């Protein structure tokens, strides 16, 4: 955003409008750079939810007009035409047939709260002993070691699977009994809630 704003500022003649999007519920520091970026430089700030918009307009650094454009998704991207695709994924992850699958799709990061899912697993397993929590992520983080250590301390490591980036998340969502969003901060609108 900064690079685009600086480039537009240096242009001569008619300049394109700079529209920014805001997806998070984090404060914007009230400094001269942000006042320029969210004031003179940005023609409109588009927020993904009303909650993000309300948080944005309360920020002193944000002086540009603010609108909401709610997110959406093409649900056809999540249709699985061949049930064997799900079974192959279940086999690859060593998830027993019929075992309930809990899915947490998020980058591995403390703000995504995966440790809360792991902490809840002992209670879940008392009711559903064969349940498996699948953590699917696109970016790994050293934080995963902490989560794995917690799982080991709680004795639930055998009920957890880690999956890196998938070509398609449709088979995973199709076999998911419960999709979990464990974010502890900054989540303005989670696409996973719609996609799953």
Cα-atom radius of gyration:
21 Å
Measured distance between first and last alpha carbons: 30 Å
Query: How many distinct beta strands?
Result: 7
Described by the principal axes of the CA atoms, the overall outline is elongated
The strands making up the biggest β-sheet line up spatially as 6-5-4-7
* Main structural class: alpha/beta
Mean of pLDDT: 86
Main sheet?
4 strands, parallel
Contiguous helical run count: 8
Q: Roughly what percent helix?
A: 25-40%
Low-confidence stretches: none
* Succession of helices and strands: HEHEHEHEHEHEHEH
How do the helices and strands line up, and which of them pair or pack?
Blueprint: H1 2-10, E1 19-22, H2 32-41, E2 44-47, H3 50-57, E3 66-68, H4 83-92, E4 101-105, H5 114-127, E5 132-136, H6 143-154, E6 160-163, H7 170-174, E7 178-179, H8 191-195
Parallel strand pairs: 1-2, 2-3, 4-5, 4-7, 5-6
